[in-house]
Sequence to fold (538 residues):
Amino acid sequence: MWMWKGSLPLLLLAAAVAAAAEPASTLEGPSRPVTVPLREDRGHAVDLPDTDPRVQRRVTGWAPEQIAVALSAAPTSAWVSWITGDFQMGGAVKPLDPGTVGSVVRYGLAADSLAREATGEALVYSQLYPFEGLQNYTSGIIHHVRILGLEPGTKYYYQCGDPAIPGAMSAVHAFRTMPDVGPRSYPGRIAVVGDLGLTYNTTSTVEHMASNQPDLVLLLGDVSYANLYLTNGTGTDCYSCSFAKSTPIHETYQPRWDYWGRYMEPVTSSTPMMVVEGNHEIEQQIGNKTFAAYSARFAFPSMESESFSPFYYSFDAGGIHFIMLAAYADYSKSGEQYRWLEKDLAKVDRSVTPWLVAGWHAPWYSTYKAHYREAECMRVAMEELLYSYGLDIVFTGHVHAYERSNRVFNYTLDPCGAVHISVGDGGNREKMATTHADDPGRCPEPLSTPDDFMGGFCAFNFTSGPAAGSFCWDRQPDYSAYRESSFGHGILEVKNETHALWKWHRNQDLYQGAVGDEIYIVREPERCLLKSSIAAYF
Fold:
């Protein structure tokens, strides 16, 4: 008979349980591929209607709405964005004058002492269609103000709007700047999500994400899904299935952007969010203009990081250098994005920012049938360059499921390759990816028609390895560590110069702290030689 004396056995038992529950580590080498069986409780992928109070306009006059904070390239500055005035829809729309309302942010270290002031710029964008019967759109006035001279790791209170107009200033909000750039300071939690949309699944994802109290959010494209709608507000979960043969151009319903900004404001007004474009942001209109909403609505550190483009840019957060790349802009080795990437990587000092993390929309290492090897041309163009500089982690979206790779380079397990994590399961209304390219009889045919925005066609049969001579593996590839068709979000916690804890949270787990996938991603700078002459910190 066991005799429990005092609390020592209980402490030992607790220690044993804690040890058993210690997450796996990439130091242990490649993990055996895992596929989680499909579950029925995957959520409710139905869009929030325009009658939902969370998406309706709750301000009047020139009062600000859709308030959002974004990072600059360094923690000493940040962007505040908002919209004043309402959008217009109709056959003939007249844009508002951006000069009607000022762009002012008052801020300080206390809610009752907003003694400092910054000003910025305002703009209006339109989505126009040269076809009879289609509804045109013009936005409210969009404001972007960059605040300078901030202290790293500091909570700031702010109001935005126009103090010269009665009722045109917002309530007081607050956000915290990123920690100082250096190898021993890191944001506490970084939330990572893709393909968010505005469904009831979205609300579950955002609620779970907010409960983890992130310091920063990365949104990896496909934001509002306004392009799943006609201009009359009729929506679908598959535009090409429902409307492609009956419309002269791929329409959008731009008010969905405003609905999304209103719903997200409680998060975006207090937690910096960094966004990169996805295919649903293309939104072609008159004159073949694209990406109008995306480029106008968000603030990017493009000037600060010298990319001068809303599609790719970089920024520092503590000891992490983030690079956000464009899967839908020219990524060829002769293009501007590639030349900028070479310059940006060459400037990274790994003794100051040991971690190098990248994000873009379309994954390179997804094993799902949907979008299988779709971004192969981008991988062929850029992977070797990123590998030579010791890229640690890649975050992507696009495929509506979750997948994490082992360390991989050129489809081969490599201890110095990056860990690729696809989180394209944020809550959108399109069909979830449930079929794998390696399922029997499910290997897709190689694409014969290049995508206009993804570039040419580069995916051919493998020439070496277990899948040599085939377009797909006949089993879950060795480089695929974990995959699951569920909605959710991820949290990255960088602990120090070499260790980062990655957690993926499913929406359907009732306990919001529950973890679906968890692993320590460990850098080995002394093992992995870098092309850069700037030393890696270890």
Q: What stands out?
A: Confidence is low (pLDDT under 50) at residues 1-20, 533-538. DSSP finds seven helices and 28 strands in the chain. Residues 336 and 464 are 32 Å apart (CA to CA).
